[in-house]
Amino acid sequence: MPPDARALNPDVASRLDAALEAVRLASAETLRRFNDPTLAIREKADRSPVTEADIAAEKILRDTLLGAFPHDAFLGEESGTAAGTSGYEWIVDPIDGTKSFIRGVPLWATLVGCRHAGRGVVGVIAIPALGEIVYAAAGSGAWHVRGTEPARPARVSTRATLGEALCCTSDFTSFAKRTDAVAGAAARARLETAGGILRTWGDGYGYLLVATGRADVMIDPLMNAWDAAAVETVIAEAGGRFTDWQGHPRIDSGDGLATNGLIHGAMLATIRG
Fold first, then answer.
1. What is d(CA 118, CA 238) in angstroms, rounded to the nearest whole number?
2. What's the distance, Cα to Cα, between the start and end of the chain in Å?
3. Beta-carbon contacts of residue 12 (< 8 Å; ≥ 6 apart)
4. How confident is the model at residue 147 (pLDDT cuts 50, 70, 90)?
5. If we measure between CA atoms, which residue out of 114, 82, 95 comes closest to residue 53?
6. pLDDT for residue 3 is more than 80
7. Distance (Å, rounded) from C-alpha 163 to C-alpha 147?
């Protein structure tokens, strides 16, 4: 827990503790199965892959979080929804970047977000294979841990121009897979011209890079709520800004943009043309 967590609402502080414990347990499960040549993989209805590790890790997240807070709601990428009565909702993705996980690339993430009254109050982005985690609670800042090092504040960069920015995305081909495919492809072309350095260090890892000041922009043309719920709190508490492509602070629009805040307007203008 961050050093100033005592100032938090006790309900939020206890959920941050639970989120960190759930991520610790789920990360151990995914690491145990990482690079396992016998790992079972199947294709979901949307043609994206899911593995035994996704299913097992989400069960751990669900059981741990709802075990601690049985009246909270829950939304998981793999197991769907559970209704709640407390006003709090957990939204999780056990392996954000399953395609990387399957290929033995260590940049996949475990994402846990908690929302209350329509806003994010807890967010955890963990990169288990790298031993990195960024976590945040509303009003308590964002905190970065590497390996066994003590937690230190996570802060976004101070680069003020898009031409100097390091911009990440999960998959540049997804720009043309939007419903407005022509506009998406045009937005990508403008970004390639306007941005400084473009990399596909994507999924949750790209957002962790923005939160820790190593990247300046992370953009997703296609994004689900379980990809965004952890991100919204982490980025905001690290001093940045997370919105959809219209500039609205939403996690359910189908796309997402995280920046250091200073170049957010320039990025929105580039997207819109």
1. 20
2. 42
3. 114, 116, 121, 122, 137, 138, 139
4. very high
5. 95
6. no
7. 33
**pLDDT at residue 256 is higher than 70:** yes
Closest by CA position to 41, among listed 104, 93, 92: 104
Q: Give strand pairing partners of 73.
A: 89
User: What pairs with residue 88 in β-bridges?
Assistant: 116
- What's the average model confidence in pLDDT over 94-119? 96
Q: Give me the amino acid identity at 188.
A: R
pLDDT in tens, 10-31: 999 999 999 999 999 999 999 9
**Joined tokens for residue 273:** 């043309």
Round to whole Å and give the CA distance between 59 and 234: 23
Q: Which of 205, 175, 209 is nearest to 189 (CA)?
A: 175
Give the start-end residues of each E strand in 86-232. Answer: 88-96, 109-116, 119-127, 132-137, 142-146, 152-153, 166-169, 197-199, 217-220
- Please report, for residues 28, 245, 246, the alpha-carbon distance to residue 272 in angstroms, rounded to integers and kept in the order given: 41, 8, 8
Residue range 119-137: mean pLDDT, rounded: 98
- Domains of the chain: residue spans and CATH: 5-153 (3.30.540.10), 162-272 (3.40.190.80)
User: Is residue 228 pLDDT above 60, yes or no?
Assistant: yes
DSSP code at position 156: -
Output the six-digit token pair for 65: 């979080």
| Rounded Cα–Cα distance for residues 97 and 107 (Å) | 7
* pLDDT at residue 7 tops 70: no
Identify the DSSP state of 177.
Answer: G
Residue type, 176: A
